[in-house]
Amino acid sequence: MKRALRSLCAGLLLATLPWQVTVAEQRLPAVPEAETLAALIRWTMLAVSQANLTGNYTVLRELGSPDFQNANSSAKLAMAFAGPREQGLDLTFAVSALPQLSAAPTVDAQGVLRIVGYYPTRPLQVNFDLSFQAVDGTWRHSQIALAAGPPLLRMPSNQPLAGVTQQVPPVKKQTAKN
Predict the structure, then answer these.
(1) Tell me: the pLDDT tens digits for 1-28?
(2) CA–CA distance, 100 with 161 (Å, rounded to integer)
(3) What is the Cα–Cα distance from 98 to 121, expressed in whole angstroms?
(4) What phi and psi values does residue 144 have, to the nearest 5 degrees?
(5) Nearest-CA neighbor of 51 among 71, 73, 81?
(6) Residue 111 pLDDT > 90, yes or no?
(7) Main-chain phi, psi angles of 66, to 5 degrees
(8) 100-101 and 165-166: which strand pairing?
(9) Residue 109 · residue 131 · CB < 8 Å
């Protein structure tokens, strides 16, 4: 009887320890709807575009996740995006163009959303590899990788999403990462 009582008390004590993770805390954010994915891509591309046009990367930095902010100063972001800026790459097309995905968006074990794709623009195609972290219920960029190059051959779409089309070309990267 005493042994059963001790086991029960030990079990109750372990059940209330502060480091124990509950089922609700283990839940990862879901991959957002297609419209939200398209908006995240557009907002990020436009933030980079505005930073490149003005030479001021402060807002781009501040819109990022805390990890992105801690890893990147405005000066570091200016260096990371020097290539597209010096190329005169105009990203304002992102307002109306539909991004195409190279792979299905995923949320990893740390809750980071990753979106990889491209805009089939001419003369240069713009490839992107973007990551986002949920901060207080809002997705904020945690990694931005952009590359522009000759258009790649279009592959048949396997699962088109509303507002976002999936294709399967490779992605070349220039990164601004934490």
Answers:
(1) 555 444 434 443 334 334 343 434 558 8
(2) 9
(3) 10
(4) -130, 120
(5) 81
(6) yes
(7) -55, -40
(8) parallel
(9) no
Please state, in angstroms and rounded to a whole number, the distance separating the CA atoms of residues 39 and 58.
Answer: 21
Residue-wise DSSP of 62-114: HHS-HHHHHH--HHHHHHHTHHHHHHT---GGGGTSPPEESS--EE-TT-EEE
Distance, CA of 44 to CA of 154 (rounded, Å): 24
Q: Is the dihedral of CA 43, 46, 52, 58 positive or negative?
A: negative
31-177 placed in CATH 1.10.760: no
How far is Cα 19 from Cα 178, in angstroms, rounded to an integer?
Answer: 27
The pLDDT score that the predictor gives to residue 152 is: 59
Element (H, E) at 54: helix 34-54
Reported in sequence order, the residue ranges of the chain that DSSP labels E, i.e. its strands, are: 100-101, 106-107, 112-119, 125-135, 138-149, 165-166, 175-177
Q: Which amino acid is at 141?
A: H
With a CB cutoff of 8 Å and minimum separation 6, the contacts of 32 are: 40, 105, 113, 139
This prediction has a pTM of: 0.71
